[in-house]
## 1
Amino acid sequence: MIEPEVFSFLKNLAQNNNRPWFHENKKSYASVRQNIIDFSSDMESRLNLSDSIELGKLFRINRDVRFSKDKSPYKLNISGYFKRLSEERRGSYYFSFQPGETFIGGGFYGPNKDDTFRIRKEFEMDNTIESIVNTKDFKKYFGELIGEGVATAPRGFDKDHPNIQWIRKKQWYVLCKFTDEQVLAASFAKEVHNTYLAIRPFFDYMSEVLTTNLDGESIL
């Protein structure tokens, strides 16, 4: 269960985003971090009931400020992900805790050049993605498939193709937002697990795409 201390710490950090304050409150951060680790461990166990997770990981709270005008040393959220096991299972589950901005999701944030091309070619040839994003559960939890994309069409693709809204993307992922009250409720872990389960049809389809060639033959 997520404790109220998580949000109170992050709210205070937003008002005191500096190293001296953080150093003075290292014990509070350690407690908050352990709470998220416990949540992550429980969720990994739940996911492994119907999936196979290779790795659960928390991101560092320290910001990389080398190329940023904002030199604030710390992130205002605590986030992490679950990497699925083996090349047969593609996509990662993601979570981020922040006061008023908590969300659960997953997908493909930075696919490499070959994977991006393979996904686009599949969407050019096949309309399965349309049926997945229009299912009741997908609409209930995520609303839509999101991600940054090119302005019109990638090179070599028709800008008037019926699936251009999916083809033009270079990221494909989903997010489900939760209020602070929902996060602190006893039912939160169950809701997160249900949210992750709603991603699986998308993951299963994309895994099939990324482990086969355009003729549907395995490339593993």
## 2
Amino acid sequence: MSRRAPLLALPIGDAAGIGPEITLRLLAEPPPEARLLVVGSREALARELRHVPGAVLPPEVDAPTDVPDESGATALWRGSEPLAALPPHGAVTAEAGAASHAWVLQAAGLALRGEVAGIVTGPIHKEAWHAAGVRHAGHTEALCEHAGAERVLMMLVGGRLRAALATTHVPLASVPALLDTERLTEDLVLLAAEVARSFGPDRPRIAVCGLNPHAGEGGLFGDEEERLIAPAVAAACARGVQADGPLPADACIPAAVVGRYDAVLAMYHDQALPAVKSVAQRHGVNITLGLPYVRTSVDHGTAFDRAGEGRATAASLRAATVMAASVALRRAEFDARTASVR
């Protein structure tokens, strides 16, 4: 890929939430690092014009190749799935759920075909997806199946903290049973490879959180560390991964925040996300590792309680867009460099 600004597809999320508003805010001041192809409803965007002074609707194009080469160029794809009915702000509807699901898969299709360098997803509403008969729990699961990926990892980024999750949206009581030495080993191998390719350095330092307080305190507070996590760390290290652990989360996550580690593997959702969001201050980014293309996302939901009020911020969407552009360029350079030495 050339050094021109990468073209990214932006599915706008649920039309009843803040996705259209934050998309319009981003388009009003597009980041020069990228070119943007919006996938979604023109009507949903138009409804938010009154909330974004100076904003205009992007020109419509028939194909990604029609987006101008200039940095910061924006366009709306005419091929976007039609929205059956524009939902009221804050309402869970099957129509909006079906449309947001279709837009995500359409953007993913463009990425799989190499027509865009990556996708940046707006916030979807899982209940609306369910109402539409979508069986996927969320973006990550839908994109993994659509791409035929063997394994993916959710990683949240805030400042210098990059935290991947061994388990995602499951009850806390279910987490111990979901931890498995072989799975954790593969997570660490994938995490190290994807961090090297997307961010650097070539051999990233990975901190592995324990599950229990004080990483089990030698078995006093639980044996998952000794029985499951430590063998996974050893197996990953034997495969060339530079990993430490299991370590107490309250020690290794702050160490990653100040740069002593390049990434962290957390055992469950809320072990890592409060730290990421505290560091990020509305600029957090969700990135999916393991897909055959770049995918980033906002680190927040649809905010139905404030949709249509003109109070949404596009800070996370902007950060996700800039990161997607940076990662797309970094991966292309990494792949070219490593291919040349084979």
## 3
Amino acid sequence: MEQDKGYKGVEQKRKVGFREWWSEARPTKTAVFWSWVGSVVLTMIIGFAWGGWVTGGTAQSLAEKMAEDAVVKRLAPICVVQFKQAPGKDQKLKELEKTDSWQRSEYVEKQGWATMPGEEKPDSKVASECTRLLMLISK
């Protein structure tokens, strides 16, 4: 009987395995809520950083830039055709080659090749792309 006195009021702890602990675990509402919030935030971080997600404003500006680039790509060959129709084109191409690379688009603008039919002034982006194409022709 004396052996029982030592164990009165003291519960013996038994070793509980993970599987049993997991099945008996009952998370609180607070833990569930913050787990949900953390999951949402982590999903957003991963999505925007590596998943390719963008905001509506970013998508709009990307679409506008792509549209502008597409228009420039379509107008640059017209600029080349206008160059080919210009008198003294061989001499002007040599002058263009001798011009510093950062001034070439200005040269194309001054020659009027980057001025599209119906327009009053040349487009600098078309002139840049036209210069690139003309340099390919000269090689």
## 4
Amino acid sequence: MAMQAGGEGDVLLVVDVQRDFCAGGALAVPDGDAVVAPINQLMKHFRHVVVTQDWHPADHSSFAVQHPGRQALEVVETPYGKQQLWPVHCVQGTPGAEFHPDLHWDRAELIVRKGFRREIDSYSAFLENDRTTPTGLAGYLRERGLVRIFLAGLALDYCVGFSALDARALGLEAWVIADATRAVGVGESQTAMELRLAALQVGTVTAGEFMR
């Protein structure tokens, strides 16, 4: 049976489908390119689409090169707690920060840029990693009356997952579209994130359930 979605209260949230997270990128997610085709199809079933874009300054504090003697994937202490270090990626205005060339991002009503503050990384589409700085997305959804969030994009164990957790914390209904996302596979495992999502009653659907 087809999933009934795409109504006035529903929004498709497409997370960080950017060149640096896809094949050949600085922080490529395994099989990341595979999310593009189902996301493009899903966009046809939603009146409302929002996309997010990682948008870092070149000297962002989450980049390992900003911490002499440290390597990517190590964890450091910051004023807001533990922060995993990353390779330089999604730098503002560079090709790596662009959306995947095949993504139909022009269907989006809103582009949310995150991670542009040098001292704070940002996984969630709702709150940056200090867990107090909002992106503005929650207010936008509230004012538009959008209360049911369907999430796709990159990556499940980071930006997609944390966005879903924050959506539930805000009292929104959240669904992850399982075959329209992929996991990085470092740090917190895909299985651990899936358990956290299940504990907060984040639903799981497939893109095929929307095709009717």
